Amino acid sequence: MKIIVPVKEVAALDDEFELADDGSGVDPDSVEWDLNEWDTFSLEAAMQIRESGGEGEVVAISVGDEPAEEGLRSALARGADRAIRIWDDALAEADALAVARALAAAIEPESPDLVLCGVQSSDAVNSATGIALAGYLGLPHVAVVKKIELDGGSATVERELEGGLVELVRVGLPALLTIQTGINEPRYATLRAIKQAREKPLEVRSLADLGLDAGAVQAATGSHRRRLAHPEKGEGAQMLDGSTAEVAAKIAEIVKERVG
Amino acid sequence: MPGILVIAEARRGELRDVSFELIGAALQLKPQAGGPLSVAIIDGEPATHAAALGSDGVDEVLAVRSPVGEFEPHVAQRAVEELIAQEHPSVVLALHSIDALGFAPAVAAAGALGFASDVIALRWEGGPVATRGAYGDKLSAEYDFPGKDCTLLLLRVGIFEPAAPGSGGAAVREVEIDGLTDAARTEHLDYREVQETDVDITKADFLLSIGRGVEDKDNIERFEELAEKLGATLSVSRPLVDAGWMPSARQVGQSGKTVKPRVYLAMGISGAVQHLAGMRAAETIIAVNTDPEAPIFGVAHYGAVKDMFELADELEQALS
User: How many angstroms separate the CA of residue A84 from the nearest CA in chain B?
Assistant: First the structure.
């Protein structure tokens, strides 16, 4: 069984981040990078399927510049067999749809049995790349999956709905699933695995390698970011200042007043 | 032809109330974006929902009969693609919900539409301008959709003021969609409720809610004890359930329970969108977090930038 796992190296802002005055971006020094949490679960799901089947291949794939290769190395250290990184300067402003377009061009010739995506990335939170990718690939798809049971040519999966409701659904393979956190317990990469990951194959592909160009990316792009801003906080919280003991006393007082 | 198309949602034969938030947002947009405002419902029995969806200001309800009883993403995808082709709306509004996330991005990809998800504010400047979170809601970002004749927007639940349901005055049109009968590619088997326990966090007046900041399973007992001393019920955010440390019946959030206690004391919870959706209606929200930029301070009434463990010690002192 061949399983493709699209992953993303995500950005988190530290406490001291600075936003450019024109809203064009944030100070790169205040950004910390890491493999997207959701992707550790989709990758683990792929590893477990491959291990239970005894054979097959898990391929991690990502759209990102060279520093973003860390996410793919991390995926390789967690057990993926090989990796593909897609990059072109034309992808610098790519949104979820444009990323899906590029991923689809690289994944289609691989003819996977399963594509497992994280439900969302922790930085952009579009929750859209996976299902857009399924659209481009023409694959049947199920979103927000928290359990997978494979049975020959089909998968029975649990969809996590709102309010604690779960739906059981069957889908034929090949298919694309978006994977929710909590579906499994992602493994940590051992030091030995991290070292071995450096020897695993990692291909870099340009848009031209995929038969795409900047125009195709532009046509697929669904949105244009005008500016970043500090969010309107509404009234926001009234901050309780003072020593921890003083704050605790204030909280105890508020609780007593409101709950009785 | 311009206009706004709203994609309402139903589940297990019931219209989902959040559909009215879409109609509310559409009504706000309509004076500038222009009509008609059409509301589509794709369901096994669409006619049963049609009267309610005809809120004041809705020009037409489009009833699409699904060949399968329950939501099916490929049926929804086919139906919405065809509705867009027939109606030519300039804006399509759907929810940032589990169901819509299962097909709407594929519609946007196939049609090369303008697209944004998790939209928290919407206005019109010659075309739609959408605001959404960035960097996990620490910043917000504004988007426009140049060159797009049709833009599909998924609106965050619980943000837009819902419209009042209609009483049957609006026109209802049954819409036939070619190829819908064999569009389904998944098979619904069953629904299952999350296992209930003896605790019902939705009934508590006072919730002490803990999150990722608790760091270790062994630390949970501390907060169970604190909750008992405070007379609070302990609830948790998603990561503690994902880790298997706490049962899902204790989970507050979109995929857990929606709670409205008198006091919600959140400790070590940063406030992911899905969590906020489950607790923002609490009467008084007190948030304790070491990160002054944590999104939870945006919805809390009182906030404190403190270590949750040190504060827990002091709270016990304050009560004794």
Answer: 22
